[in-house]
Structures are given as structure tokens and as C-alpha cells.
Automatic annotation (TrEMBL), chains A, B:
<keyword id="KW-0285">Flavoprotein</keyword>
<comment type="similarity">
    <text>Belongs to the FAD-binding oxidoreductase/transferase type 4 family.</text>
</comment>
<dbReference type="InterPro" id="IPR051264">
    <property type="entry name" value="FAD-oxidored/transferase_4"/>
</dbReference>
<keyword id="KW-0274">FAD</keyword>
<dbReference type="InterPro" id="IPR006094">
    <property type="entry name" value="Oxid_FAD_bind_N"/>
</dbReference>
<dbReference type="GO" id="GO:0022904">
    <property type="term" value="P:respiratory electron transport chain"/>
</dbReference>
<feature type="domain" description="FAD-binding PCMH-type">
    <location>
        <begin position="50"/>
        <end position="230"/>
    </location>
</feature>
<dbReference type="Pfam" id="PF01565">
    <property type="entry name" value="FAD_binding_4"/>
</dbReference>
<dbReference type="Pfam" id="PF02913">
    <property type="entry name" value="FAD-oxidase_C"/>
</dbReference>
<dbReference type="InterPro" id="IPR004113">
    <property type="entry name" value="FAD-bd_oxidored_4_C"/>
</dbReference>
<dbReference type="InterPro" id="IPR016169">
    <property type="entry name" value="FAD-bd_PCMH_sub2"/>
</dbReference>
<dbReference type="GO" id="GO:0016491">
    <property type="term" value="F:oxidoreductase activity"/>
</dbReference>
<dbReference type="InterPro" id="IPR016166">
    <property type="entry name" value="FAD-bd_PCMH"/>
</dbReference>
<dbReference type="InterPro" id="IPR036318">
    <property type="entry name" value="FAD-bd_PCMH-like_sf"/>
</dbReference>
<protein>
    <submittedName>
        <fullName>FAD/FMN-containing dehydrogenase</fullName>
    </submittedName>
</protein>
<dbReference type="InterPro" id="IPR016164">
    <property type="entry name" value="FAD-linked_Oxase-like_C"/>
</dbReference>
<keyword id="KW-0560">Oxidoreductase</keyword>
Length: 477, 477
């Protein structure tokens, strides 16, 4: 057993077997299991973090029994396991190092059933969000959660990070969609709680531990998810708002309007929308200088009704809310272009590679004050500092990117993190909204989590995974 | 330290102090705390279980600090604690015995804030659901959960039992409304996670343990809850359905209708509706013999639009679904009378006092088969056996009452429990939907929970409450 380090964190467990020997032993464990070597992995994309394939060995069980056999063997041999799904995670939660074993859910990719009457789906962990959406659409249903990386993100990964996305303000996050769960515990035992009903008050709900558990408590293998009816009749608009408060008034108004469902509300602060438009040659003549852009989408009983409602409401709100411009999409194509401005949030990375990026939750009433304070705090570190600010405004989830080529020196990064995180917990927000802790938000976790909460987390980790075998080095328990 | 027994369960901890000495010591603990004696409790209603006040001493802290002082002192002195809220629980989850201390949240009854923009409320645990609904109504908001005992049930109690109610099919259960939580841990330490945002992916979400924890992991003291806009424009109908499948088709149709929100869908099987009508002298001439009654309520952009929609939809569905009657309420008063038939579900207790009653979740597609099997299983025990069946059909939550004066002899009760619970877990349901385990569903927990789940629950209980001080004797860990 050797010890490994990633960014200063000591990893609890790793094997001393040679790669060849490890490969041979793994290959013998279970017939329903594929083992990939360093060579096999070289041709594959490691996803959002270059260190994801560091372990150099990936096991792909095709059944929960195979996964359990692997985990049990690793437990016996004190070998650490890094679970991996679609590798779309943004905080290094899937990084692995030599001596560990990657446990990929890529062969656990079956949609087991869709129950139209109960509006639920039972899927294996490696199914992508988009694959499930397509299967559900055949029944007039869709997922009650949606996010930009839908084509690659897996349901299991979304459970493990408690994914959020664009519908959370209305439907809640992944935790609120999960009815049932099957996992493999660090002991190798299978924990099966594949409930397909929403009402369960039958003792402690243990599956909650694995939701947002970032792979620290075991491997998610199957998930029962709530679905909801599709609402295809939509209209989309962009409008100018002086501040978050104005945008929230628009949102509140649209949410209380009978006959209409608010489907999305995404805000882009001035610098984001201006720089994006400049880079992409977009026409922003409709938007007043210094205004933020709010993208709203509603559904109604027909496309015409949705569009007419949106036109009427913008006209009605224009003066009282002093809107700074507005434009209702005339076609699906134009609506898609509005969405591209929001979803292509990586537009700046060519200019500022490895920029420091954050993902915080702030109670909506605090948004304007938070953004103003953040700007002045950043300027106090370096007068040239500024940030791109955009996000899911209806639930207070802001994405922030420091407009500076990264990576920052450690002390500068800490100063920026302090500027971003300070006061958020006290205001009722969170230093990590939907991306998780992983490797990259460990300072946030260590510094901005209450000691009582950290102690409780440590206690649970110790109880479930006393050897520290599951995804070591990420959430610093 | 003595040992006590309730229904054969050994309670872990109790005090050997005399009642007078205990009262004196408790009274000195903290100024913000009231201590009630046996005499003080005699004039009070013990709620839904006659054994709730068995401990004979109740402490009412007025602040979380006072509660923490009490819990810390009890931990030092190995004295067991039974948390109590509104005492509306139906499974004996608040029963206490001599030697224990009742910890009541009745003085933790402040609504701390309502945030209209964020649509959240922060309340102390002892606030009743109705008090919160009234305060929220001033902002055009309401709770996203509702249940019949709203006037007495407390938010803290609803968190501890993961309450369900009539809106769960759409909004989820209490777990899905809770954004933040403050609790006192069995050690006496305060755990504060008063998040007011829906998106949090910042390490394990430990507050989930206390939701549905039935007071076994600590005392809930403060809660941050999601609210939602009021939808006051409603219409209510009763209609006849041959079976659950028909009712589910109606529900599915109303849920996918643009411009309309389904607010409730409650089904009463034939024997329930017939006996109720007979007892109360209600006119059921509109309902065909042998049909179940489905109560549906929708909201729309006006009262007239809601009523017209409901009339139109019933007309449209009449033939294809072969409806067995239907009546749309012509007034709020008539709608209220429809609701009384459903909510006055205790109508039969005068005839069959202490009847065995159950509360199960069944995936909606299995409802008809389940009810048919249940009837034949009951008849196999005793040919005279029959049950009242009614409940929140849209989420598969059935309430079942054996039509026989109770309590049943132990072996007969076990046979009935087996008849009610067998196969439910395998179908994806739960032996306890919204009432919890408490004392009365312990057989269900012991017999119809997977060994892996029970072992995990025991591990967590041991980690958090190693002395077994919190609500001993209820959920059998």
C-alpha cells in the first residue's frame, strides 16, 4: 500500500500491484466486466479534467453484480476506487491517480423501464440525460431536470453531484427527482431501495447520502426518477434589466400568471452579454448600454398563446419595471440563438484559458448586493480584476469567471476565493451550487462549512467507508 | 439508569431521579425554558395517542440555546428525550414513558421571516402549518405542502415524519420543501444549515438525516421552507370511476392540459363513499353503484375558466373513460362538502373504535391489482373481513382501515399486516407512506425493510446517537 498526493491531499489507499498484475487480477473478477489499460485509455477523451484517467486502469462492469464483485475485491485489497460517469464534472471530482482503479458506469447504460402512468423511469447509472429524455418523449414525458451537458452527463453522475440546471427554480434539483436508488456500498454489499413512489416515511431515507455524495459513500448503479409531461408550446424572449431585482420582478410576475408556466429564467450581467456579442458578432442594438440580459421562456396552451402572452406581459411590465429593451423570438431558430448566448458560456476560454471559475448560490434578494460587493472585493485585490457573471437567476445560482488567464498563484487564488465566498453562508447561500466540491472547491468546503457540519460528514464517512476507499482526496472530510 | 418497556421494545435510557428532583434540576437549566409536571399535563390533550404524556414531565424551550442546554444535560445524565410537536402523529411516534423527558417545541413558535422574492419562509419548529399558510397568504404565497391536520401539525413534526398530504403528487413531500434546517444533535451541539436556496452541492447534505428521522437523530428547531404562489381560482368535481386505472387516466389528462393546474386528486373506493354517505345522509344519486368516487380540484386563470374547463373535460372524457357519474361543485360551499367527505376520514371510528389502519404507497399502475389482492388476502384470514380504502391516488398513497373494532389480537394483527404489506416493496412501494414508523409500524419496518437498509440505518443511529437517547423504542434500528 503506497500513499499518493493530489494538490497536497494525501490519498488514503492505493495498490502496490504492478499495472500488469492489477490488470490481470481485475480481468479475472467477473465475466460481465471490461478492463481497460493505459493503452486502451489513450485514445479516449478524459472529459473536463485532464487528470481523470491518471489511474491508468478503468473497469466497466455491465451489471450491478459485477460492480459489487469489483468493489468487494478492492475492499479486501485496500485499493481505492474512483467512480466515473460522463466526465462532465467541472471541479475535478473524477480525477484519479496511479494505484487507484477507475470504476466507469459506461456499460451500465440501459433504460430499464418507463412507466407512463406513474410518470417514472428506472435507469442504470450510465444512461445519459439526453438518452432518457428521448425515451421519455415517446410517452409525451420528459425529465424534470435539464442542463446544458445533457448529451454526455449521466444520470448516476447527476445523482452523485446533486445536479441543478435550468429547471431547479421550479422543480428542485436532482435530489428532488430521485425516487429510488441502488448502490454498491464500500463493503461491496448492494444497497437496493428502488422505490417508485414519492411518499415514503419508513425510517431514515438512507439513499439521500448518495445523492450529492460525490462518490464518497459508494457507487450509484440504478436510479428511479420522476418524469413530467412535456410542455412543447413555448415562447422565448430576451429583455434588458437594470439589475437582478428587476429580473426577479419579471420572474415573479410570470410565475404567478395563470395559464402559463415559466420554463427558464437565465440572466447574463452586462460584461458577459457585451463581450459575448462582440466576439460572436451578435446584434445587441435592442439592449440598452449597462443593462443585463434576461432570457425567459414560457409555455402555454399553444405556441401562439405563449408568444402573445410574452408580448403582452413585456408591454405591461415595460414602464413599471423600467425595462431596458426586449425582444421576443420570432422563430425556433431565433430562440435557439438566444439560448446559445447563455449555454455557450465557454466562449471566453480561448481568451482566458484556465480562468478561475465559481458556482455559488445566493438567496435571490441578496443578488444585487452580492454582485456589487464581489466587484469591489475583486478590485481591492487587483484594480484590474473583473468577472463574468451569469446564471440561473430564479434560484440564485450564479456562475462567476475571473477575467484573467489562469491558473492563479495559490495565494492570489485564495484571496479570490475569499472574495467570492465570504458572507454567502451567513446569507443563506452556498459556496458550491451545482458543481460539487471535488478537488477544486476543497478550500471552499474547508473554510466556509460549519465545524458541526464537517464533523458530522466525517462521522458518516467513517461509518460507511472506514478505509477511505471511495473517491479519496476529493471532499475533505 | 433503569430500563423501560413499551410494547416489548426495551428503551435504552431513563432516569432514576425522582420526578420532583428531575423537575427541580430541569427548572434550573436555562431561563428560557418552561418545565411542566404531571399535574400541569393533566389538563392538556395528549393528541392522537393516549400514551404521549407518559413521561409525566415536559420541557418547553423557547430558544435553540435552551433546547441545546437541555439536550446536553440529558446526554450527560443518560436521560432519554422524546421530541413532540403538534401531536397529530398516527403511529405512536411521540409516546413517552416514565423516566424520559418530553421535549416540546410549543414555545419555539415564531415565524422568523417570509421572503417574498425568494419565496421562502424561515420558521421555528413549533409553528403550525396553518399559521405559516396565513402568514404567507399576506404575500400572495402559500406552502407547497398541505394536509388535513394543518391547524395543529407543526412544521418541525412534518419535517421529522417527512409529511406528504394532498400536493405531493405535484410538489413532492416535506423533504422536497425543506431548504434549510437547524437541529440540536444528541450531543447537545447545535447543527445549523439554514440555507435559503434550492441549489446546494457542497458536500453531503446532512440535514436529510433529520427529515423523516422521526426524532431519532436529534431535535429539529428551525426550518427554511420553499413557498409557492397562491392559485386561488379553482373548481372542484366528484366523478365516478370504475377503477384506479380510470381515475389515473383522468388525472393524467388534467395534468397535461395547458393552462390548468391539477390541485388535488383524492379517491374513495365504493365501500368508503357509500358508508360515509349513508352515515351522513349525503346524496349519491349521481354516482353509479359499485363505482369509486374521485375528487378532483383544478386551478386556472379565473374561477369561471376553471369551472368551464372541468365541465368540458368531464364531458370529453365521459364516453372514452366510461365515467360512472360526475358533478362539478356550483359553489365554494358545495366544494367544501366534497372535501369533507374525504377529509372526515374518521367517520367510521365511532362504529369501529381502534380499528387497525394502514398507510401504504403503491406505484399507481399497481393500484387496482393491489386493492384486489388485498381484499382476497383479507378474506383468506377471515371471510367477514373488508377494508375502507381511500387516499391520495395521484401519488399512489392509500389509506386502509380494517372494518372491525380493534385492537386485534397480536397474531391476527400480524396476519393482517402481512396481507397489507406483502409485495409492496418489490413493486416499488412502501409499507409506510406518510405517517412514519413510530411504535405502531415497527413490525412493518422489521419485516419489510431490506437487511442492507436496516444495517445502514443502525450504523447511522449508532454514529449520531451512540447512547440511544433520542426517541428510543420507535423505529427499531
Amino acid at each position: 500500500m503506497a500513499s499518493n498526493e493530489v494538490d497536497g491531499m494525501t490519498l488514503a489507499q492505493s495498490t502496490t500491484l504492478t499495472p500488469l498484475e492489477l490488470h490481470r487480477r481485475l480481468s479475472e473478477l467477473h465475466p460481465e466486466m471490461t478492463v481497460l489499460s493505459v493503452q486502451d485509455l489513450q485514445g479516449r477523451h478524459p472529459g473536463e479534467h485532464s487528470g481523470n484517467f491518471g489511474a491508468g486502469v478503468m473497469v466497466q462492469p455491465a451489471t450491478v453484480e459485477a460492480a459489487a464483485a469489483l468493489v468487494g475485491w478492492c475492499a479486501e485489497n485496500n485499493i481505492a476506487i474512483v467512480p466515473q460517469g460522463g466526465l462532465t464534472g467541472l471541479v475535478g471530482g473524477n480525477v484519479s491517480v496511479a494505484g487507484e482503479v477507475i470504476l466507469s458506469t459506461s456499460r451500465l447504460n440501459r433504460i430499464l423501464s418507463i412507466e407512463p402512468e406513474g410518470m417514472t423511469a428506472t435507469v442504470e447509472a450510465g444512461v445519459t440525460l439526453e438518452a432518457l429524455q428521448q425515451a421519455a418523449a415517446e410517452h409525451g414525458l420528459t425529465t424534470s431536470i435539464d442542463l446544458g451537458s445533457r448529451g454526455t452527463a449521466t444520470i448516476g453522475g447527476m445523482v452523485s453531484t446533486n445536479a441543478g440546471g435550468i429547471l431547479a427554480f421550479r422543480n428542485g434539483v436532482m435530489r428532488h427527482q430521485v425516487l429510488g436508488l441502488e448502490t454498491v456500498l464500500p463493503s461491496g454489499e448492494i444497497f437496493s431501495d428502488l422505490t417508485r413512489v414519492v411518499k415514503v416515511s419508513a425510517g431514515p431515507d438512507l439513499k439521500q447520502l448518495f445523492i450529492g455524495g460525490e462518490g464518497a459513500f459508494g457507487l450509484v448503479t440504478k436510479v428511479v426518477l420522476k418524469l413530467e409531461p412535456q410542455r412543447p408550446y413555448r415562447a422565448t424572449a430576451m429583455l434588458g434589466a437594470a439589475d437582478a431585482r428587476t429580473a426577479l420582478s419579471v420572474i415573479r410576475h410570470l410565475r404567478t400568471l395563470p395559464g402559463v408556466t415559466l420554463e427558464a429564467a437565465e440572466m447574463m450581467w452586462p460584461r458577459y452579454i457585451r463581450d459575448h456579442a462582440h466576439l460572436k458578432g451578435l446584434d445587441l442594438s435592442w439592449l440598452e448600454e449597462n443593462a443585463s440580459a434576461l432570457l425567459v421562456e414560457i409555455s402555454a396552451e399553444s405556441v401562439d398563446a405563449a408568444a402573445a402572452t410574452l408580448e403582452d406581459q413585456l408591454a405591461e411590465l415595460w414602464e413599471p419595471l423600467d425595462l431596458k429593451g426586449g425582444i421576443v423570438a420570432k422563430s425556433l431558430d431565433q430562440a435557439r440563438r438566444f439560448w446559445d448566448i447563455r449555454e455557450d458560456s465557454g466562449f471566453y476560454y480561448a481568451e482566458i484559458p484556465e480562468a478561475a471559475a465559481f458556482d455559488v448560490s445566493v438567496p435571490p434578494t441578496h443578488l444585487d448586493a452580492y454582485v456589487a460587493q464581489l466587484e469591489s472585493r475583486l478590485k481591492a485585490i487587483d484594480h484590474a480584476y473583473a468577472a463574468y457573471v451569469y446564471g440561473h437567476i430564479a434560484d440564485g445560482n450564479l456562475h462567476l469567471t475571473l477575467i484573467k488567464r489562469g491558473p492563479l498563484p495559490q495565494d492570489e487564488l485564495r484571496a479570490v476565493e475569499d472574495a467570492v465566498y465570504t458572507g454567502i453562508r451567513e446569507a443563506g447561500g452556498s459556496f458550491s451550487a451545482e458543481h460539487g466540491v471535488g478537488l477544486e472547491k476543497r478550500y471552499g468546503y474547508e473554510t466556509f462549512t460549519s465545524p458541526a457540519k464537517r464533523a458530522l460528514a466525517r462521522m458518516l464517512k467513517q461509518a460507511l467507508d472506514p478505509k477511505g476507499l471511495f473517491n479519496p482526496g476529493k471532499v475533505p472530510f
